[in-house]
Amino acid sequence: MKAIVCEQFAPVERLQYRDVEEPVPRSGEVRVAIEAIGVNFPDGLLVEGSYQAKPDLPFTPGVEFAGTVDAVASDVTEYTVGMRVIGVSDHYDAYAEKVCCSVQRLMAMPKDMPFTDAASLVLAHGTAHHALKQRGQLQSGETLLVLGAAGGTGLAAVQIGKAMGARVIAACSTDAKLALAKANGADELINYQTRELRGELKRLTDGKGVDVVYDPVGGAQFDTCARSMAPYGRLLVIGFASGEIPKLPVNLALVKEFSAVGVFWGAFVRREPATFMANMQELFAWYEQGKVRLHIDQTLPLSRAPEALRRVLDRRVSGKLVLVPDAAEPC
User: How confident is the model at residue 111 (pLDDT cuts 50, 70, 90)?
Assistant: First the structure.
């Protein structure tokens, strides 16, 4: 079978598309013939050696996927050949035509969900959901600021914030990105390239400040957000897509009485699998109700994974980018 292989930590352009041995499911695993793979920012960091985890070399990157079960281990009874499933790889090996996955990290797909949507829902929406529900304790009627609101996880946070009853302020670098955030439910829009973010937040909150900030970007805007928090606010640290890890002026946390809250979705999934599965069931229900939806920027063949990852790392994707096996048509 074909797969993307990382031989050494290096720029994503060095990835190889080549033949590898077909995996065989071990105890507690099923093998899935992949139909679609979600491309995520951490995938690129992993390949370039900039992520928290560093798998043994060589490895195949990729975490979220959707497909059809085509083999099961002898002790597996929950899944049968032919079932449509969503998976979260526990071996960073989803950029392939087939993958083996523990049944604890598989979910049956909702009946009418396309494979491309299924492969895009788990990481971005799962991260935003966990961040806003378990870590941010977002309440109906509160104000939520989403930075990078046109990216995959940013759009997810906008949608989920609205589903949870918040007033959502979307912050982006272009008017086109803001239009996408607006189409996905944002109540207020701030172009922080043309407007002063702190002043706009003060105006939009009548000087109170923001209850919850969802920040997957880091960089200079983090400090602005720290100065714009409401009392008892929660500043959620999701990631650093800007490439700059900011420093927290802790005196502001003291005088404003807000909390900086870290969000590490991967650790949460491993630590609390039952809560993760409950979150996913809520997301599936919201999907079926139309409260959350997937914006697929582009679907590319698996062999073009280096190009896909470069676009994601350079923040040139709105919503999600999806890979499909080269012989497949998007479905």
Answer: confident
Backbone angles phi, psi at 92, to 5 degrees: 50, 55
Q: Which of 85, 91, 102, 126 is nearest to 280 (CA)?
A: 126
Mean pLDDT, rounded, of the chain: 94
Torsion-angle region of 293 (φ positive above 0: left; ψ -120 to 50: alpha; else: beta):
beta
CA distances from 193 to 74, 177, 190, 213 (A): 57, 12, 9, 18
In angstroms, the first-to-last Cα distance of the chain is 21
Closest Cα partner for 45 from 230, 312, 270, 255?
312
Confidence (pLDDT) at 328: 60
* DSSP conformation class of 217: S
- What is the C-alpha to C-alpha distance for residues 266 and 123, in angstroms, rounded to an integer? 9
CB atoms within 10 A of CB 44: 24
Q: How many C-beta atoms surround the C-beta of residue 176 within 10 A?
A: 10
Domains annotated on the chain, with CATH: 2-109+295-324 (3.90.180.10), 124-266 (3.40.50.720)
Q: Among 84, 310, 67, 266, which Cα is nearest to 321's? A: 310
Max alpha carbon distance in the chain (Å)?
Answer: 62
Residue 192 one-letter amino acid: Y
The span from the CA of 149 to the CA of 190, in Å, is 10
Tokens in use for 298? 């582009």
Note whether 322 and 37 are within 8 A (CB).
yes
Contact between 107 and 277 (Cβ < 8 Å): yes
Count the Cβ atoms, other than its own, within 10 Å of residue 210: 24
**Cis omega before residue 58 (within 30°)?**
yes
Amino acid at 186: A
Please indicate, yes or no, whether the overall pTM of this predicted structure exceeds 0.70: yes
Query: Tokens 């002043």 correspond to what residue?
Result: 199
Average the pLDDT over 301-319 and give the result: 93
